[in-house]
Task: structure prediction
Amino acid sequence: MKKVLFFLAIAVLGVVIKVTAFGAGGAVGKSAMTAFHESEESDRIDHHLAQMMNMINKQTPVMVDKNTRLDNVWGLAHHFRYNYTLVDYDGAEVSEQQFTKAMRPYLYNEVCKGKTLKVLPEGGVTVSFSYKGKDGADIAIITITPAECRSSASM
Result:
C-alpha cells in the first residue's frame, strides 16, 4: 500500500509540476493535491476500521441481549458491518419487512445521533447490521449511509 501511495505521490507531483510549468497550475494543481490528500484520509479511515474490527472480534461472539448474539464485525472500504444472530428464531419465523420496520428507526438513531457510532458516518463510513436466524438463514440487512445522517442533520 505504501508503494502505491509513493507512486501516486510521484504521479501527482509530476502533474503538478507540468501544469504549473505551463501556467495553468492554480486550480488543476490544487485539485490534484486535494485528491491525493483525500486518498490518504481514506486509507487512514480504513485502517481505523480494521483496528476497530480486530478489537471487537476478539470479544465475539457475545450476547447483547437475551435474544441477540453479536457474532462478528467487519470493516472494509468505508463500510462497517455488525453480524448478529437471533438465537431464539429460525430465519423463516421472522418477517424481513416487519423486522426492518421495527429496527431501522432505532439503528438510525444509534448510527446518526448516538454518541458512540455517529463518528462513523461523520467520517464517510456506511454502517450495516446483518441479522440471521438460529438456523443461519438471513432475516434482514439494515444499512445506514452517511448521506442519510447528513440529510437528517439539516432537517
Remarks:
- Strands lie at 62-63, 68-76, 79-86, 126-133, 138-144.
- Confidence is low (pLDDT under 50) at residues 1-37.
